[in-house]
Amino acid sequence: MGYKFAEFKGEIYDTYLTQIYCYSLLIKENTGRDVNRGYLVYTRSKNKLVEIPVTSVDLEKVEKTAGEILELVETGILPDTKANIKKCNLCTYSNICVK
Ligand code: SF4
């Protein structure tokens, strides 16, 4: 479950989904139990509860990304990047990002 100090406006940020998938993977790895859903609570919308489906594909993506991040940390080699307007529009950091 992820608590957000935010209003629910009908759209769920990809970063929120990733957070739920990461929690799900941690639960699975530490308990051995399958996780098929998580929840977001929007505290500025009267604690609106939104159920997030979690699939094995979601968990595989998170594992793959975690492996890639670990490789970046270990090698110190960073990829070339470009701002992607489509992704930036859904990013929770767009209001503070210097791009
Ligand atoms: S707003 Fe900034 S942090 Fe967010 S996706 Fe775009 S470049 Fe990345």
What compounds sit in this structure? iron/sulfur cluster
Anisotropy-based shape: flat
Strand content: 15-25%
Distance separating the two termini: 30 Å
The low-confidence runs, each spanning 5 or more residues with pLDDT under 50, are: none
Strand order of the main beta sheet, please? 1-2-3
- SS-derived structural category: alpha+beta
Write up this protein.
- With 99 residues, this protein is of the alpha+beta class.
- The protein has one domain (2-89).
- 43% of the residues lie in helices and 15% in strands.
- It has helices spanning 14-31, 56-75, 85-89, and strands at residues 2-4, 37-42, 48-53.
- It has a three-stranded mixed sheet, covered by helices on one side.
- Strand 1 (2-4), helix 1 and strand 2 (37-42) form a beta-alpha-beta unit.
- It is flat.
- Bound molecules: iron/sulfur cluster.
Characteristic terms for this protein:
single chain, binds iron/sulfur cluster, alpha+beta, 3-stranded mixed beta sheet, 99 residues, 3 helices, 3 strands
